[in-house]
């Protein structure tokens, strides 16, 4: 196939491409290839190569002080959706990436890229929403930057947020630390955020009342601190969905992951829209859900502690475990008892929902 | 004028606009209005309100440890220009914003927004250039993120970089600290970066050999440390040019600034292109030039130290002073002896050159 032909068939993920495709931003295999083949050989270093939600760095002359650092760009379309907008999403997402390394947010920065023609009233609404998210998260925005590009050179509004946090866990949770026998726990039903965005985009809003699950998770993580030594890994479920997070844990830890379809909580409305759009909820992004990988001996204690403390807000549940079999792979045991391999998607199932 | 009419006349800066115009990103009055009326009333706090190149934050439980934090998005077009590209520009710009607060870079994060269709070879070239800039600056990229948006939803490639630095000055230089009698010093001729970009964009490259002045400035700032107590303010000359930086210093310090046209170094080629394009070099962005505001009693010592240490690379020169007259204003004494007020531009002289 000629290069030109390839360029035309851009909706199909294509791993050996010479141009950037949407699939390169999916959080799936194409993204992994881009990171592995383009970014890491050049920009890689011992910190960046960890590929964690946030990087841990030590401060010179403060051997016992560690800070966590994370960065993310938000390009969601539409910029307003049921249950949130791009502004609150950016603050929550950054707080959550810090929280997943056992860190509490200290400071956030924001870079805005505005398209000429954006309504200032819309910008104001988004900034108000960011401020409310910062206040709720008890974190300050400490630096900001605004650039404006011409009409057609951006899609209304992009936000980059970078977070700096103070590490509170004595050993930061890591995707590399999953151990055989560990249980895998989620804090609620999956797929709401992605389906809230998709329903708005596809004009299905009349039919559903699904709200995004976008929320800050650092207070939950703080409440896990008494059990920190039993927690091996925390990872928020965003791009790539639950399937993406679990395959990353399996690969980074060189372990197998087994999950039970019957244990994975999914709202019936989310399921219905997924069926309507032909999507698999396992790959749908959330923005307020996370996976805890925990020593199985502490599972009951963890569930009791969390479900009491967060009663009415979050519901924690074991959905599977870490195993020594089928290393680097996630296997789903279906309701009828069959097994199937849950692979990372190659390209994009859902473009631009975080 | 109706809203629709206003939207059509977007090339003209318009302060009371209800939509975002290019001028809102100029670093001029429209930017200041947007920050003052939209951003600060909502996101403002004691740190962000300082409006410095980088914010200084203290770490909890480490009263004597201060870190500097800065963020910037880079949307330059074209992404390659004589003397650099968007990648090296982003790293240098972030290092420089930290340096201007007396901080040495500790870590940098990068968020990439890629337009579908960008050549991976171009992305590779830019990432290589970032890595070289990081190596020269002795700083690590510690976190990165990549998003891909559809064709027409971005202009090839945007980069957001956030820098974290360790403050080395005992009192961080600040735009608020200019004092009457202080001298104003630049480290070289102004306007090269903006004119290198404009010459490429306008297809004038045959006629000129102007290279961007893009460079990291933290080593220079480190070499100023022996004289740190005499240094009141450091500010790199970027968006808004020398005029923009000096008006910010005048306003933030509530002082007057007097500069001498005959002392401001400008390369003849830069001058020639400025004349051709009808631009005033005082407003043209640099990316490796900065202003030092210094106690006049230490001026000779400073110039000798710097011009010896940086001989052949940078040439330091006094271009004016801080005065008690015409507070909040910058006055230029022309070659023929007349005075004129140098105001911030309202909107955009040069779109998107940093």
In short:
Two copies of one chain form a homodimer. By secondary structure, chain A is of the alpha+beta class. Chain A has helices at 3-8, 29-43, 86-99, 120-137, 192-201, 218-224, 241-253, 268-277, 299-309; strands spanning 55-59, 62-74, 80-81, 84-85, 103-115, 140-149, 157-167, 183-186, 231-236, 256-260, 290-294, 317-323, 330-333, 339-342.
List the helices and strands and how they pair.
The structure is a homodimer of 354-residue chains.
Chain A: H1 3-8, H2 29-43, E1 55-59, E2 62-74, E3 80-81, E4 84-85, H3 86-99, E5 103-115, H4 120-137, E6 140-149, E7 157-167, E8 183-186, H5 192-201, H6 218-224, E9 231-236, H7 241-253, E10 256-260, H8 268-277, E11 290-294, H9 299-309, E12 317-323, E13 330-333, E14 339-342
Parallel strand pairs in A: 5-6, 10-13
Antiparallel strand pairs in A: 1-2, 2-7, 3-4, 5-7, 8-11, 8-12, 9-11, 10-12, 13-14
